[in-house]
Amino acid sequence: MNRIIVSLIALLLSVLQGLTSQAQSYGDYTFYCPKTNNKGYLIDLNGNTYHTWTFASNKQTGYSSYLLPGGDVLRTVAKTGNYFTGGPICGEVQKVDYNGNSLWDFVYSTTEYCSHHDIHPMPNGNVLLIAYETKTPAQVTQAGCSQSITMWPDKIVEIQPSGTTGGTVVWEWKAWDHLCQNYNPAKDNYVTSIVQNPGLLNINYNTQKDWMHVNGIDYNEALDQIVISSHYLNEIYVIDHSTTTAEAAGHTGGNSGKGGDFLYRWGNPAAYQASGATIFNIAHNAHWVPADCPNANYLVAFNNKGGAGNKSCVDLINPPYNGYNYSLTPGTAYAPSTYTWRHTYSGSATQNEGYSQQLPNGNMLITISLSGYIYEIDSNQTVVWSKTISGAVTNALRYTACYVNGPVTVTASASPDQGCPGTTVQLSATPSSGTSNTYAWTSIPPGFTSNLQNPVATPSVTTSYIVNVTSGACSATDTVLVTVDDAPPTPVITLTGDSLMSSSISGNQWFKNSTLIQGATGQYLALTGAGTYQVQVTGSNGCLSAMSDPFIWVGISETSFENGIRLFPNPTTGVITLSGESLVNRSFGVTIFNAQGKAVITFKNEFSHDLSSLPGGIYYLTILTDRSEYTSKKVIISN
Question: What is the per-residue DSSP string for 156-175?
């Protein structure tokens, strides 16, 4: 019984220890493809295999491999039959889906060039390749080299995939276009001072056939720059990718204005005859710290034998950024004078290869490539996870489950996306995947919230609507802007003589007793009897103002002439009545004039008359008797 209890306690402690280790780790899965092998693996934090890719038996991994969002793999392939030999020659790059089916298989290998070592997937779907090109002894000596040998200088090409096997070189940079030498003034690339030309490569430094042996490449989208690492020259180099291919072959152009010359180099000042300590002793895996990590935009390299006692280490360097360039005092080495941060591997030095990945939580995943040892350290450089695999692996990378399974994305939209205050807007969230997603809408300025996928909003001002969609452990956010045009100012009604006037010169629509008055769209409105009058304005953008305050007109009950003559009712709906002793037993005539002074009705000796045949408006009535003419009086017909 005691042995069982002890075993249970040991098991519990083991589980708790594993949970503690995982709690300190970043992400969910580690991805790697062993070299000279046709397998790829995704393991969880317990070291269990989550997924396996099986590639064609003749498509073994040549060097590095990368997992793309959603589970596709982009990897180098050790093509057989390459003209160029040595390690690690690749000559081929392949993209396969989650099930191992080939999506794209591109060969970049001839007698003139061949891809080798590392690749980099670009944000636009293209791929950066490192490649050798060959130069004859005659070309080498003409370039100013002190040795008459065949050389394999490196170049970088950007391949735009097409179809399942095609590809187009859309950008190219060649080290051979950026040489210098102070050996022979009669040859090409002659300069009087190497140190005064740090943007160029001294062809007579550590010269050999496989001269640079570039082994790592990375791309910084924000800077539009590329960094590469050189095994034999013990340096990392930054070049401008914003150039055209023609500019990349020269010394001007691009964001930096320096064409394809080095913008920055670091690790071995002796390579350009500057003073300073040599920090790198075989450099690999040059890259930038990603933007979502601590020390973002630091440069990183795996330093195979650069640590104390020739131990392997990972060095971080904080470059002297100066816009798209890097500060340098002419004639000196690039700053900093030494590494900014270093992690030293506790085991034996690895003579070749090595890789590190900086993680968003401050941890770092490190690959001791040839021994197949992968481990993760926290910000205190404490090992929190490790795994030893069978065989060599160039690089291992840590990913989240969202990245592996296909990160959810969402597109927010609005219909219409522009309108007037109070316009009803249909908001919509379109996720890339998932049917059990949850949604959370907010707004700027604040005030709108909804948990619906496609809610309705009625903004009164220009508003940004933000939707966050959650699918399992993954989430994404997008924003849509709804522009709200300004409404015209609320009009004000004033009484002017016999009419009402709107404060707006144009765009008016008049109402009486809440009913639209057809055709009443001018600035002025003739009063047509007692009632409640309002006006509303339509602006040039089609937006309506608020309704004006009501103007209440009680009208006139009757109108009096001289000698006791009265006219009523006034306003009238049609029938008017005249009264007064001065009209009795006398002949009289009545004339009705419109507002323009034109006689529209006449009648004689009638004390009542129906005017309903006239449209509503302001009229004037004149009475003529056999003794006198009475001044015109206003009559309002309201119908």
Answer: EEEEEEETTTEEEEEEEEEG
Q: Give the pLDDT confidence of 157-175 residue by residue, as tens digits.
A: 999 999 999 999 999 999 9
Query: How far apart (Å, rounded) are the C-alpha atoms in residues 425 and 436?
Result: 25
Cα gap 568→49, rounded to integer Å: 102
Residue for token digits 């040039």? 540
Q: What range does the domain containing 580 cover?
A: 559-637
Q: Which of 447, 445, 450 is nearest to 463 (CA)?
A: 445
Q: What is the pTM of this model?
A: 0.71
Q: Is the pLDDT of residue 579 over 80?
A: yes
pLDDT at 635: 77
The reply to whether 215 falls in a domain is yes
Burial 339-353 (b: 16+ CB within 10 A, else e): beebbbbeeebbeeb
Q: Looking at residue 346, what DSSP letter applies?
A: S
Structure-block tokens of residue 22 = 């995982």
> Long-range contacts for 565-573 (Cβ within 8 Å, ≥24 apart)?
565/623, 565/630, 567/621, 567/633, 567/635, 570/634, 570/635, 570/636, 571/528, 571/529, 571/530, 571/635, 571/636, 571/637, 571/638, 572/611, 572/635, 572/636, 572/637, 572/638, 573/612, 573/637, 573/638, 573/639
Adjacency order of strands within the sheet including 313-317:
283-288, 299-303, 313-317, 341-344
User: To the nearest whole number, what is the mean pLDDT of the chain?
Assistant: 91
Greatest Cα pair distance in the chain: 140
Residues 6+ apart with CB under 8 A from 621: 567, 576, 590, 591, 592, 593, 632, 633, 634, 635
- Tell me which long-range contacts 623-628 makes (C-beta under 8 A, separation of at least 24): 623/561, 623/565, 623/578, 623/583, 623/588, 623/589, 623/590, 624/588, 624/589, 624/590, 624/591, 625/582, 625/583, 625/586, 625/587, 625/588, 626/586, 626/587, 626/588, 627/586, 628/562
Q: Cα–Cα distance between 604 and 74 in angstroms, integer?
A: 105
pLDDT value, residue 519: 94
**Separation of alpha carbons 127 and 169, rounded Å:** 10
Q: Within 13 Å, how many C-alpha atoms sit on residue 525's CB side?
A: 29
61 shares a domain with 109: yes
User: Do residues 71 and 154 share a domain?
Assistant: yes
Q: b vs e for 250-274, b when ≥16 Cβ sit within 10 Å of the residue's Cβ?
A: beebbbbbbbbbbbbbbbbbbbbbb
Based on the domain organization, do 584 and 545 belong to the same domain?
Answer: no
Instruction: For 41-51, write each residue's pLDDT tens digit.
Output: 999 999 999 99
DSSP states along 142-157: HTT-SS---B--EEEE
CATH code, domain with 618: 2.60.40.1270
- Number of Cβ within 10 Å of residue 47's Cβ equals 13
- Are 236 and 229 spatial neighbours (Cβ–Cβ below 8 Å)? yes
Does residue 485 sit within a domain?
no
CA distance 504 to 521: 11
**Residue 167 and residue 187 in contact, taking contact as beta carbons nearer than 8 Å:** no
Asked if residue 488 belongs to a domain, the reply is no
Q: Which residue has the tokens 């060969």?
A: 107
Residues recorded for the chain: 639
Burial 384-393 (b: 16+ CB within 10 A, else e): bbebebeebb
pLDDT tens figures, 270-284: 999 999 999 999 999
Contact 558, 591 (CB under 8 A): no
